[in-house]
Write a structure and sequence with these properties.
By secondary structure, the protein is of the alpha/beta class. The protein has 28 helices and 19 strands. A six-stranded parallel sheet has the order 6-5-7-8-4-9, with helices on both faces. Strands 10-19-18-11-17 form a five-stranded parallel sheet. Helix 6 crosses helix 7.
Length: 759
C-alpha cells in the first residue's frame, strides 16, 4: 500500500545489464565530445533527432521527477507509497561482525534536533490558552477560526478586524562567557520506539482492513500509544503514514467500516484536508490558499469541499490565516483624492490561507526571533569588509554570492574571534564542513549544533554561548530548523545568513532565505567575488538565464551527446568508471552522478543499478546492499547523508560517512536508504565533488528548470561532464523555466514586525 517516504527511499536492485563498451572513450579526447561550454544552445548530437525513449514511462513517473514542485518530494513520497504496499524488503542479515555503537553523527544529530523542535512546538501549543499572539493574526479556537474564514470570504470583516496583533517578543539575557567552540560528548539520539503491545494491536487492525502488516511500526509511531483504537475508529488516519495515498486509505476504510464508509464521511474530510497540507509541505509550502484546498478535495471525490474545509477547521485539524495587504503605490501624490480612493479599492485582498499548526508556529516563532535579534543588537563600528561593517552594526545580516563568496563569512567569523567575540560558523551538511576544514576553517553542521553534538554550550534557558553565528548554505534551511536555530540565540547575538539564492530551495517546508531577502528588513550584502574558471563562468551565466559557451582548455566542461536513455546510462557508466579517472585524474569514488529524478529510464534507480554492476558487483546480500556500496541515507525526510557500506549485523547496516560511522537500523534500511552513486540535485545540494556527471536523458526535459541546472552544474569543483539528450530543452529551461513559487507566510510576518513607517 505504501512505499517509504523521503527523497532517499530505496529501490530494489533491478536486473539491469548495461552495455559494456569494448573500448572506453576518454572524456574530451574526441573533438566532438569536448565543448567550450555545456551551454551551447545547439548541442552536438547526431543528425537524427534525439529519441524520446521512455515517453510512456515518463507519464507514469512524472510524479517522481524532482521538479514537479520546487522540491519534487511529493512525487517521490508517492513513489514511496508503492513499495511498502508489496512485500517487505529483506533487512540486513545477521552474521557480519559489528562494531561498538559509534559516537553521534550528523544523521543521529538531526533526529535529536527534530525531536527537540517537536517538543518545543507542543509545549508552546499547550501554553497558549487564548489566541496566538504573534504576527500571524491567528485565532485561537476552532469556532473563532471558522467564523473568521466565513467573515473574510463574505466581506463582512477584514483581516485586521478578525485577527489579533502581535505581542512583543520576550527578552533573553546574554549567556555567560563560554569558549567559541566546545565539542562535548554526543547526546545519544534514540528514536522513539512504539511499545510492542501497541505495534501488535495495530498489526491486528491492519490485517482486518487488508493493509500490509509491515506498516504497523509506522502507524504506531505516527498515531501514538492508542494507535490501534484511533485507526479502528477512523481508518483514514492511515494517511498519517508518509506515502499512503487516498485511494489506499479508502480501500482500508471500506474493509473496516463496510456500509458505513462513504466519500463524504467527516472523518475522511478531515484526514484528506490534513493530507493535502502535508503533501504541500513536501513541495515547500507552509500553507495553501483556501481555493486550492477545496480544489484538491474535489479531485478526491468530496462532493461538498466547502463543508469539508469547515469541518476540518471546526475540528481544529487545520488553522486559518489572512495576512494584511500592503498597499504599495496606491496612487500618485498629485492624483485627485477620488482617484486614490478608487485605486485603493482595487487593491486585491490577501488570500485566505489554511495551514497546519506545526508550520504556523514555526513561522511565527522564526519571525519573532529574527525581529528580536534585529531590535536587541547593540550597534558597533567594525573595521574591515562590507560584511564586517554590516555585522557590527546590525543583529541580522543577509549575505549572497556563489561558491567563492563563502570565504567572506569565514573571514567574518575569524575577525569576530580576533575581537574577542564568541563566533561560530555553521554549514548545511557534512560535505560542506569537510571542505571548509580542508581549507583551514573550523565549522559545525546545523544538525550537530542544534542537537548539542558540537558547538558551544547552552545556558540554563537553552541559548547558545555565542555573540555571532554565521550560517552558510542558508537557502537549505527549512522553516522548522531555522526557527529552532533562532530560538537558541540570546538577545543581542548577531546572525549572518549566507547563501546563493539561485540554488534549489530547502527540501523541507518554507523558503526562509528567500523570504528574508524579499522582506527588506535588514542589510543585504551581495558578494562581488566571482566564481573562478570555466565552471564558475558557466554557472554564473546560468544564474542570469544564459547558457553560454565557455572556453575549457583543461577539459573542465565536457558535453557527451546521446540519442536515447539507454545510451545515456551506458555513457554515464563509461565516464565514471573509466573516462574521468583516465583523462581528468579524478577517481570514481570522487565522481558524483546527478540526474533529474528517481524514476524513468535514466533516473537514479537505473543509473545506480548499472553503476553497482560495474563498480561494486555483488548479490546485495544485506537487504540489497554489499560492503563497498555507495549509499544515500535520509535520517529525516529531506536530509541526505552519503556514505559507504561497511558491514551488517543483527542491528542493521553500518556505514562510513565522512570521518565517522553510522548505524542504519534494520527496520529503516528499506525506507531510508538508496544506492548513492547517482543522486538527485536536491540530495546533492550543499555538497561539492571534484568531478560531477549530470545526466539529462530525453525523458527528463519536463523536470528541468534554471535552479535545477544551476544547482546540478554547480556541484562540480574541477570537472563537469554533461550527458546531453534533451536537445534544445536545456537552453529553454535555463532561459525560461524558473522555480515555482512557494506559499509561505514568513515575509508578511517579518514586514509586519519590522517595517519602518516610511516603508
Amino acid at each position: 500500500m505504501t512505499e517509504p517516504a523521503g527523497e532517499t527511499a530505496p529501490e530494489a536492485p533491478e536486473a539491469v545489464e548495461p552495455e559494456v563498451p569494448e573500448a572506453v572513450e576518454p572524456v574530451g579526447e574526441p573533438a566532438e565530445d569536448v565543448r567550450e561550454g555545456a551551454g551551447d544552445s545547439e548541442p552536438r548530437t547526431p543528425d537524427s533527432a534525439t529519441e524520446e525513449a521512455g515517453e510512456a514511462e515518463e507519464a507514469g513517473e512524472a510524479e517522481e521527477t524532482e521538479e514537479a514542485g520546487e522540491t519534487g518530494e511529493a512525487g517521490e513520497t508517492e513513489e514511496a507509497g508503492e513499495a511498502a504496499a508489496g512485500e517487505a524488503g529483506t533487512g540486513p542479515e545477521a552474521g557480519a561482525e559489528g562494531s561498538d555503537t559509534p559516537e553521534l553523527t550528523d544523521a543521529q544529530a538531526e533526529l535529536a534536533a527534530q525531536r527537540e523542535l517537536r517538543a518545543r512546538i507542543e509545549a508552546r501549543k499547550a501554553e497558549k490558552e487564548g489566541p496566538l499572539a504573534s504576527g500571524a493574526k491567528l485565532s485561537g479556537t476552532a469556532a473563532d477560526l471558522l467564523a473568521a474564514v466565513r467573515a473574510v470570504e463574505g466581506g463582512a470583516a477584514s483581516g485586521s478586524s478578525v485577527f489579533e496583533a502581535p505581542e512583543p517578543p520576550p527578552r533573553r539575557p546574554s549567556p555567560e562567557a563560554a569558549p567559541a567552540m566546545t565539542v562535548r560528548p554526543p547526546v545519544q539520539a534514540s528514536a522513539a520506539v512504539p511499545a510492542p503491545g501497541t505495534t501488535a494491536a495495530v498489526r491486528e487492525v491492519l490485517a482486518r482492513g487488508g493493509a500490509p502488516e509491515t506498516l504497523a511500526g509506522q502507524v504506531a509511531a505516527a498515531l501514538g500509544e492508542g494507535a490501534a483504537g484511533v485507526l479502528g475508529e477512523d481508518p483514514w488516519q492511515l494517511l498519517a503514514v508518509p506515502g499512503v495515498r487516498p485511494e489506499q486509505a479508502d480501500g482500508f476504510a471500506r474493509a473496516l467500516l463496510g456500509a458505513e464508509c462513504g466519500p463524504d464521511d467527516p472523518r475522511r474530510a478531515v484526514a484528506l484536508t490534513v493530507w493535502l497540507l502535508e503533501r504541500a509541505a513536501l513541495q515547500g509550502d507552509t500553507a495553501l490558499e483556501l481555493q486550492a484546498v477545496r480544489a484538491g478535495l474535489a479531485q478526491q471525490a468530496v462532493s461538498d469541499p466547502e463543508k469539508a474545509v469547515e469541518v476540518a477547521v471546526s475540528e481544529g485539524a487545520v488553522l486559518v490565516f489572512q495576512e494584511e495587504t500592503t498597499e504599495e503605490h496606491v496612487a500618485d501624490e498629485e492624483e485627485p483624492d477620488e482617484t486614490a480612493e478608487t485605486a485603493a479599492a482595487e487593491v486585491p485582498s490577501a488570500p485566505v490561507l489554511l495551514g497546519l499548526d506545526r508550520y504556523a508556529l514555526a513561522e511565527e516563532s522564526l519571525a519573532d526571533g529574527l525581529a528580536r535579534l534585529v531590535r536587541t543588537a547593540t550597534a558597533d563600528t567594525w573595521e574591515g569588509s562590507e560584511l564586517e561593517h554590516a555585522a557590527g552594526a546590525h543583529g541580522l545580516v543577509l549575505h549572497t554570492g556563489g561558491e567563492a563568496s563563502r570565504a567572506e563569512p569565514v573571514a567574518l567569523v575569524a575577525a569576530a574571534r580576533a575581537r574577542g567575540l564568541r563566533a561560530l560558523l555553521a554549514v548545511h551538511g557534512e560535505g560542506g564542513r569537510r571542505a571548509l576544514g580542508a581549507a583551514g576553517a573550523e565549522a559545525v553542521t546545523v544538525a550537530a549544533l542544534l542537537s548539542g553534538a558540537a558547538g558551544p554550550g547552552r545556558d540554563e534557558e537553552g541559548a547558545f554561548a555565542l555573540d555571532l553565528l554565521a550560517v552558510l548554505d542558508a537557502p537549505q534551511l527549512d522553516v522548522e530548523t531555522a526557527a529552532m536555530l533562532v530560538e537558541s540565540l540570546w538577545d543581542g547575538c548577531r546572525l549572518v545568513l549566507s547563501g546563493d539564492p539561485e540554488v534549489l530551495g530547502a527540501p523541507g517546508a518554507g523558503r526562509v532565505f528567500t523570504d528574508a531577502l524579499a522582506a527588506r528588513v535588514c542589510p543585504r550584502i551581495a558578494s562581488r567575488v566571482p566564481d573562478p574558471g570555466p565552471l564558475g563562468e558557466l554557472v554564473s551565466g546560468i544564474g542570469v538565464g544564459e547558457l553560454n559557451q565557455v572556453e575549457a582548455p583543461g577539459k573542465e566542461v565536457v558535453i557527451v551527446p546521446v540519442r536515447d536513455a539507454g545510451e545515456a546510462v551506458h555513457r554515464t557508466v563509461q565516464l565514471v568508471a573509466d573516462s574521468v579517472p583516465r583523462a581528468i585524474g579524478v577517481p570514481s569514488e570522487q565522481t558524483q552522478v546527478i540526474t533529474v529524478g528517481h524514476g524513468g529510464s535514466a533516473g537514479t534507480r537505473a543509473l545506480n543499478a548499472a553503476l553497482k554492476q560495474r563498480l561494486n558487483p555483488g548479490p546485495g546480500r544485506f537487504g540489497g546492499y554489499d560492503p563497498g556500496d555507495r549509499v544515500a541515507y535520509a535520517p529525516v525526510p529531506g536530509r541526505t547523508v552519503t556514505g559507504t557500506v561497511l558491514s551488517a549485523d543483527a542491528e542493521g547496516l553500518r556505514l562510513r560517512c565522512g570521518d565517522g560511522e553510522l548505524l542504519v537500523p534494520k527496520e529503516r534500511v528499506e525506507s531510508a536508504l538508496r544506492h548513492g552513486w547517482a543522486l538527485t540535485a536536491h540530495q546533492a545540494a550543499g555538497t561539492r565533488w571534484p568531478a560531477v556527471v549530470v545526466v539529462l536523458p530525453g525523458d527528463a526535459a519536463a523536470g528541468l528548470s534554471r535552479p535545477w541546472v544551476y544547482t546540478a552544474f554547480g556541484r562540480a569543483e574541477r570537472h563537469l561532464s554533461v550527458v546531453h539528450g534533451v536537445d534544445q530543452a536545456l537552453a529553454r529551461a535555463v532561459a525560461e523555466v524558473v522555480a515555482p513559487e512557494r506559499t509561505t507566510r514568513l515575509r508578511p510576518l517579518l514586514e509586519g514586525l519590522l517595517a519602518t513607517p516610511e516603508e
